[in-house]
Amino acid sequence: MPIATENTQATVATESTLSLQAEAVSYIQRLIKKDREAAKDLINNVVKKEGHKTLIAYDIIKTIKANAEDKKNHGAREGAFFAINTLAEVMEASGLPYLLPLFTLCLDGVADKQKMVAKTAEQAVQTIFKITPPYSFKV
């Protein structure tokens, strides 16, 4: 009988993980669309509850990157930069290993033709600079 109990517990854990994964991806999609303030609070809760591993495990970074590189949809680009800004605010310096690979996308976004996209990308750049420790750069 212990085998059935272990399998049941593993199934419950897997279902819980899948549910949380779907929830996290849903929050990122909401950030990319216009429901940003509500999604910001929800992302804060997921990242604080589950930790930084959710960014890779749930393909959050891939989703953000894909939307930031979407040349045809300026709303998706703006949402991606808002998501980066939100994650930087939530995770602070401990999230830099996940956010620095997205930094070049933010710099590219500052030169975007759409003013709102450029403004949001600039906010993300400023937030990343603000959370980056000064000893991270060679002067």
Written overview of the protein:
The model is unreliable at 1-13 (pLDDT under 50). The protein has 139 residues and is mainly alpha-helical. The longest helix has 31 residues, at 2-32. Helices cover 79% and strands 0% of the residues. 28% of the residues are buried.
Number of strands: 0
Mean pLDDT: 79
State the helicity in percent bands: over 70%
Largest sheet: none
Query: Strand-residue fraction?
Result: under 5%
Quaternary organization: single chain
CA-to-CA gap between the ends? Answer: 64 Å
Return the string of H and E elements.
HHHHHHH
Number of helices: 7
**Main structural class:** mainly alpha
Bulk shape: globular
Contiguous uncertain segments of 5+ residues: 1-13
Our Rg estimate from Cα atoms comes to 17 Å
Short description:
With 139 residues, the protein is mainly alpha-helical. Helix content is 79%, strand content 0%.
Which features does this protein show?
disordered N terminus, 7 helices, 79% helix, 139 residues, mainly alpha
Secondary-structure blueprint of this entry?
Layout: H1 2-32, H2 36-50, H3 53-57, H4 60-68, H5 74-91, H6 96-110, H7 115-131
Helix pairs in contact: 1-2, 1-4, 1-5, 2-5, 4-5, 5-6, 5-7, 6-7
